[in-house]
Amino acid sequence: MAAPPVHGNLLSYRLYTRPRSQAAYGHGRPRTARELNAQRILGALAARGASTAWEIAKVRFPNDNEHSRRKEKEFRRILQGRTDRGRHSPGMGDSGLVYTEEEGGTARYRLTPHGMLYCVDSLGLGDAQVDRMAAAYADAVPRVFGRWDELKGALGDGAYKLRILARGILLDNPAIPRHATSPIYELMSYLQLKYHRNFEVMREADLAEQVSYWYYTYILYDPTPTAARARARVRLLTEALGDMHGWYTRFVREANAHYRDRARAIGASGLLA
User: Fold this and answer.
1) Which residue segment(s) compose the domain that 98 sits in?
2) Which DSSP state fits 202?
3) Which of 3, 67, 86, 210 could form a disulfide with 61 if both were Cys (CB 3.0 to 4.6 A apart)?
4) Which of 244, 247, 218 is closest to 232 using CA atoms?
5) Are 200 and 183 in contact (CB under 8 A)?
6) How far apart are CA 55 and CA 108, in angstroms?
7) d(CA 45, CA 52)
8) Among the three residues 98, 117, 136, which one is the final residue of a domain in this structure?
């Protein structure tokens, strides 16, 4: 049985997974044959979901088995890495982009949440391609991709704000625009604190939750909303969130309790006496 996927939190994605993967597999237009093959693999997994190396190769050569077999071997080396003369070259599984599942002795590959974000950013996925990925990974990130049609209905183009996170922008920087009525900085900062122990190892379900908290926090507390965005926010609260309203409210209350406790700690320190 395959080991569970190992990856870190969103800070780990920004500081580790994203830059290392860009160095290994490219960002934007591929510069080498290896980068081209890597981006074809990732593009196929984004569109199809879990697939074998053979299935990925057939996307490229649907009617040519000879070329598909050769390409399958190339793709497998990139996915799994290779050992040559005692030295191991890491594969996409080692980078945290891809998780390998074993089914009846056959390896199937799928994107991790880090891999999904990397594809959105470094492959420059268009809206239709993001839609396909959302459908393929609805179970992996259920609160976002599992409700993608509802989100698009409520937010329109605003649903694709996930691209901001894919660029590694966590919005927990004090330099972001501050507005008295928007707690986005405080909530994003708390979100990173909530998962700060998971920089190296994090359950995939917990990472999906962190991604979901980030997404809804940005949408609901956009510090510079236009009138259209404000209306979309109301539609999101009344229509798309639905039964998730309680889930997100608990997060906000948890953050509020954290800051209240820290304020008490400062007061109890005696420094303000």
Assistant:
1) 10-117
2) B
3) 67
4) 218
5) no
6) 9
7) 9
8) 117
